[in-house]
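Teaching assistant here, posting this on the class forum so everyone can see the example we discussed in section. The complex has two components, and the goal was to see what a joint structure prediction looks like when all of them are supplied at once.
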Amino acid sequence: MKINHYIYIKCKVRNQNRILVKLYKNKVNVYDVIKKEDEIYLKVSASDYERIKKEIVTAKFYYVGESGFYRVKRWITPLKVLAVFLFLFLTNLFSNVIVKVNVIHSNKEIRELVSKALDNEGIHVWSFKKDYKELQGIKDKILTTYKDRLEWLEIESVGMMYIIRIEERIENHFSEENKYCHIVANKSGIIDNITSTKGEIAVHEGQYVKEGDILISGEIKWNEEVKNNVCASGSVYAEVWYETHVTLPIEYIIKTRTGKKRFNFSLESDTGKYKILRSRLSTYEEESKVLFRFFNFTFYVDTEYETIEEKNEYDLNSGMNKALELANQKIQAKFQEGEKVKVQKVLKNSINDSTIEMDIFYSVIENIAQVEEYSIIIEEEGS
Amino acid sequence: MHLYKTMKNFLMDYDYYIDIYVYKIHVFNYIDILKLNDDEIVLSMATFTLTLKGTSFVVKRLEKREILIEGVLEDVRFTR
């Protein structure tokens, strides 16, 4: 696309109309005329201006300025462009530099400990800010290294400053040593396995226990007489039972990438993530990469992969398998170490117009141990 | 023949036209400027001479075949 290049010129002349006629005779197009007392301002094309300078010698023409794009082009000099980029670069650079690391805690020893740990991880004054993943890694590393001293740690980035909030781990050894507790069942079930680290085992494997029954007693007995009291500890795995209900829509969508991709940009601020350009694909999956950060804004370059959505329907067999899979996921999400499904049985399944309904019975090996404190009543002699 | 003439005129822009607006006169396809001052402009057209009389005439745009004049028009005269 060709952009017309117009120039504003001025001419000091008494008879302004005569200069216009002269320009006309020299086949110069005049696109605008402004008359001011003894001056006339003319808008002519750049090529005509060159001709005017050569061919019309009876009047003197002065360059005033340019219009539109060329006016901007003339203003934008390499030095100015460089200065703008330098400014943006320096602003971005300084906004990513930490000028203060503020560790907030009342205990000086803890403050020094965390400051030193942060320093080792590269968080100190005049260092660069870390991204979210790095900060999380550093946080986890410090918490793991000083797990006996630190309960919780948070690194907050405020402007050019890091604020570190800490929660000290307070272990009340005295109270633990002096408290007495039983391990009781938090659910009814059949005992599968007992491991006691302290206390006296009160049940045996294969025994049915109800919720609240003592599993490991804190009372150490000898010949039916309590000789000592401790805080019982250990794990008791028992077979417990659940019933779960799963509802699964018959229709499901499979997304397939077509191989077509488009690039886009997005901007993330405190209020959310926004697309800079309108997406040209109707359905797509997206992968984002950080382009750069500027103050509280993060610019991303997004790769949008076009996808085709295909609607499918489960038949009874595949639907049941899927529902079973979902139910397993649901039940296993609550599991802790050593816990597992022993038996699973479909109680009821039905297929409606739009959903598959399923009731499943689970027999699960689960740790049912729960600490329950108790106190000792000391009977006074003679009472 | 009429169609040919119409087509030719459409492509070549042979016809002249004179548009008169409030404080503005636009003349297209003039041949020459014979006189140009604040109260009288005389233009040579293909078959006649156009004389515009008025006050405060200012040429706003001047091209090879087109002229835009600002001012108060009082009299328009065609002379063969």
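For the discussion questions: DSSP finds one helix and six strands in chain B. The helical segments of chain B are 2-12. Think about how each of these relates to the inputs above.
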